[in-house]
Design goal:
Length: about 675
């Protein structure tokens, strides 16, 4: 039919076609390029392979058409032909057809257990020979001999993507296995949950050693050769990971094969070898062992064939990597999986094996120091709040970076809390999301108050006046449903007003209390006795919430990093002269009562803080002690001196100041009291 139409004949007629002198003669219009899509690995001599297909996404258009013999969730078995797709691209001329084909191949998305020729075809069509239409039959053989490769991503960027994939998989699996264990009634050690993975990847005989740590629910911290990198990680619905760092983002997938990791970075493939053992000769693909070409115990030189296997209707030759004697482990005819050990190689000279060098360069987009927070008080506050909460939830990074981070962000947090701009910026952020829901008149009056505060017409932030405006407006709303919706819309404003009811200092104290409560909430669940007993109690209390149990275990397991945060916060209580009363006193009391071994330092510092809070101010103590020391009869009446020597209050710092008093009597008595207190004997 189509041929008859081409020659201008009736499609269903049976008349003969004059191919020699057709009238009219068919006229060609445009140019077509066809590409065969096969499951072959160009980097290994176009070795075919089979396996499952997890994604195959191709869309035809008016200039590109294609068909495939498999679909997503399908697969290619080892006895099928390696070609599973065909794509045709049309253009007005060859240049346009080539451009359409390249675009179609770049848009084609295939993910599965096997390699494809897609990237290699793109590389071929962008060579000078193909562009100039000057290639010949031996051209492809030359490229294969030269080991031409498709475009690859930057190797170190690919290492970052591969390392995060390996760590993400290991950490996720450890959490899932732990959750499954406690659901079955087991009591596994918290050490089974990992948050840090040492990854080793080999590419082009270069080994990359990188430490990957989960630093939050969606962030990973990478350390390699004393350079660091923070990467945001989001899992996609199709199993891939979206990675972002700074202004760079990568869509990545990883296939874990027997002896290698195959990582797809923004549509480009890079392969990382696992630690290899040249004495184990493995099958590179699924197939059938046809024969050994070296006898059992026979000798083979480096890169000589030792066996032949059948893979997808093709015979593939396997070669030894180094010289040595080949010891057979399988019989001819055996069905093989990828990675099956076929033989053992006894090396002639183990020292001659191919050497791997370790990469000593930096990570890309280097962040050698902990990044400093933004200069804006709101961003400083939000950043510090998130990072410190993440650490208290059990997410941490290695030392010394952790201590540096805690020091920077605790200091940033405490200073931003005292900034007069903070409540203004927070309320402006809330109002920006409520602008279309608040009555215009109320919104205008609130902004008028903010303007007055901004030009320093008010010393205190007008949250009380804003709350009164909201309450007054609510009284004007007659309908109950409208009033409830109004209160719902203004809930965030009222919550913010409640947080600042005690001013900046009160808000600062409340934030510290929230951090300390977060710590106590976890640790008070592990003071019942042994870890197994505490885990049983958690399991009974959260019977249908095993994820919550796992979160508590993870946080408790990271007790030392969490202690660093809490100790830094307790230190700020004295530095910033926070009033130890009310909620702060209660949470300090709870900290002081913790009795597990990991909380000893925190409990001690909490008790010390409470003791100092109960003491009189230093100036008052100094005045009282100096008045007692100025008594001339003190040295003659030991009972009077004994009161100072046995005083339960800490007065050593006051006595040191009194040693340098201009009053000779005070100085002499201070020296005697100091010596007697220092050498005070205790009955044991």
């Amino acid at each position: 039919k189509d041929i008859r139409i081409l020659y201008g004949m009736a499609p269903w007629d049976e008349s003969e076609i004059d191919f020699d002198n057709p009238d009219p003669r068919p006229q060609c219009h445009g140019h077509v390029i066809a590409a065969r899509i096969t499951s072959e690995n160009p980097e290994e001599g176009f070795k075919p392979s089979g396996g499952s297909v997890s994604e195959l996404n191709f869309r035809s258009n008016k200039n590109v058409w294609g068909y495939f013999s498999v679909a997503a969730s399908g697969g290619l078995h080892e006895f099928a032909d390696s070609q599973f797709g065909h794509i045709f691209a049309w253009g007005e001329d060859r240049r346009e057809a080539r451009e359409n084909m390249v675009v179609a191949l770049r848009d084609l998305s295939i993910r599965g257990d096997f390699h494809t020729t897609v990237e290699y075809l793109v590389m071929l069509m962008e060579t000078e020979e193909f562009l100039g239409n000057s290639f010949h039959t031996g051209w492809l053989d030359q490229l294969i001999a030269m080991k031409a490769q498709a475009e690859r991503p930057d190797p170190v960027s690919a290492v970052v993507c591969g390392a995060i994939h390996v760590a993400f998989t290991s950490i996720t699996e450890s959490i899932q296995e732990y959750r499954s264990s406690i659901e079955r009634g087991l009591s596994p050690s918290s050490d089974a949950i990992i948050s840090e993975v040492d990854v080793e990847l080999i590419n082009d005989n270069i080994k990359y050693v990188i430490k990957v740590t989960r630093s939050s629910s969606s962030t990973y911290f990478l350390l390699m050769n004393e350079t660091t990198l923070d990467v945001d990680v989001h899992k996609m619905s199709d199993g891939g990971l979206l990675l972002s760092t700074g202004t760079n983002s990568f869509t990545t997938y990883m296939m874990d094969e027997v002896d290698r990791y195959r990582v797809l970075v923004n549509g480009r493939t890079v392969v990382f070898e696992k630690e290899r053992d040249p004495t184990k000769l493995r099958s590179t693909s699924t197939g059938k062992l046809l024969q050994y070409v070296v006898s059992d115990g026979g000798h083979a030189n480096a890169d000589e064939p030792y066996a032949e296997i059948e893979v997808m209707k093709m015979v593939m030759t396997l070669r030894v990597p180094e010289a040595g004697r080949v010891m057979h482990l399988k019989r001819p005819g055996a069905v093989l999986d990828a990675g099956t050990v076929l033989a053992r190689l006894e090396l002639d000279d183990p020292s001659s094996a191919k050497q791997i060098t370790t990469y000593t360069g930096p990570l890309p987009y280097i962040l050698t120091n902990i990044s400093s927070p933004s200069k804006r008080p709101l961003q400083k506050f939000q950043s510090a709040l998130k990072i410190l909460n993440d650490i208290l939830d059990g997410f941490c990074i290695p030392e010394p970076y952790l201590s540096q981070m805690v020091t920077v962000h605790v200091s940033s947090l405490m200073h931003s809390l005292l900034s007069p701009e903070l409540p203004l910026l927070e309320l402006q952020e809330v109002l920006s999301s409520l602008e279309n829901r608040l009555p215009p008149r109320l919104l205008a009056r609130i902004r008028e108050l903010l303007q007055q505060y901004q030009v320093k017409e008010m010393s205190m932030f007008p949250f009380d006046k804003i709350s009164s405006l909201i309450d007054d407006h609510a009284l004007l709303i007659k309908k109950q449903s409208e009033r409830e919706r109004f209160f719902l819309d203004t809930q965030n404003i009222m919550t913010l007003a409640k947080r600042y009811r005690g001013g900046a200092c009160g808000h600062q104290t409340d934030v510290v209390v929230q951090f300390l409560r977060r710590y106590v909430e976890v640790e008070e669940k592990f003071v019942l006795g042994s870890f197994d007993k505490c885990l049983d109690a958690l399991r009974a209390g959260y019977r249908d919430q095993m994820d919550t149990v796992v979160q508590y275990v993870v946080a408790h397991h990271r007790i030392q990093p969490r202690n660093i945060v809490v100790l830094a916060l307790l230190d700020t209580i004295d530095k910033h002269k926070l009033t130890v009363a009310g909620d702060l006193h209660d949470v300090l009391q709870s900290l002081a009562e913790l009795s597990s071994p990991g909380t000893t330092r925190v409990a001690l510092m909490a008790r010390t803080t409470l003791i100092y809070a109960l003491q009189a101010p230093y100036d008052e103590v100094h005045r009282r002690v100096e008045m007692r020391l100025s008594d001339g009869a003190l040295s003659q009446h030991r009972e009077l001196m004994k009161d100072l020597v046995d005083s339960p209050s800490s007065i050593f710092d006051v006595l040191v100041d009194c040693l340098f008093s201009k009053n000779e009597q005070v100085s002499r008595n201070a020296l005697e009291v100091y010596v007697r207190r220092s050498y005070l004997a205790y009955k044991l």
